[in-house]
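Q: My labmate handed me this sequence with no annotations at all. I'd like to see what the chain might look like in three dimensions before we decide whether it's worth expressing. Could you predict it?
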Amino acid sequence: MPENKRILIVGPSWVGDMVMAQSLFQLLKAEAKREKYGLEITVLAPGWSEPVLARMPQVSEVVTMPVGHRKLKLGTRYGLAKQLRKSDYHQAIVLPGSLKSALIPWFARIPLRTGFVGEQRWGLLNDIRKLVPEDLPLNVQRYLYLGLPAGRLSGDIFYQDNIKSPPKPFLVVDHGQVQTTLTKFSLIADKPVLALCPGAEYGPAKQWPAAHFAEVARAKIAEGWQVWLFGSNKDQPIAQEINQLSGNDCHDFSGKTTLGEAIDLMSMAKWVVTNDSGLMHVAAAVGCQAVAIYGSSSDEFTPPLTENCHRLSLDLDCRPCFKRTCPFGHTDCLNHLFPDRVLPLIR
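A: Here is what I predict for the chain of 347 residues:
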């Protein structure tokens, strides 16, 4: 083992997955400390993820992926890989399952290239792991498994403990920057804050109805709380609907903040009510108490990695279906999960 080791992580393309990847970074650092060698972790990731990765002290460097999601652009990938050759990485760990995601480590001639079987990646990867879903039911466990030396899981208590109880993501918050963000938006944190995250990038089958969010907002506003709405540009319609149904008494930040600013403001929330989304994982990683609403997805696959979260879902025969839109057209798994299940939890 070298005195100093460099690993390139090819990161995922979703906010929640990137937050969960921090569990892998923590495991790799713990292993380096245990084996007494230095470790630098570089993450190859989309540009939007930089504010998230900047709050992970385990990450030494971020390399921005110059190719958009689902685009090939072989020439661009090869050009970046040539630059990466100069860094003398010992290993690449490829978290996505696509063939495209394995190209840059191969072009960069990184000697050990680890990832799961998928999309005919034989040759591009030379440390190929077979995924057995029953052994690794959580998405975060699958990331951790790729960080284990081949064959070590069965005989090493250190790895078994980490797989069984994954390290919890923790995004470091700069309180000076938080104050700067509060000032930018003319906010005064003189009342308890309820954050609502009504968006879900995956699709409407993961979105709790606007009317349910609004009922929760009205109840907390009546108790003297501030209610802040978070989301991307795509979430503006539902955020505006919630605000209108709440008497326009919410602070609507959807599409108005950077991801970094959203993280700063989220850290001020006393409670968060959220769909199964990237912001759910952000809320968990900044230490918020949260209520997570699950519709078509399952908290047995992508739970928030925190003990401060209530996970709510309905026991219906049709869920979890993992569909973007309800195949039956009724979305009962969300419509029938009423606010009276949520409000007692945040009192």
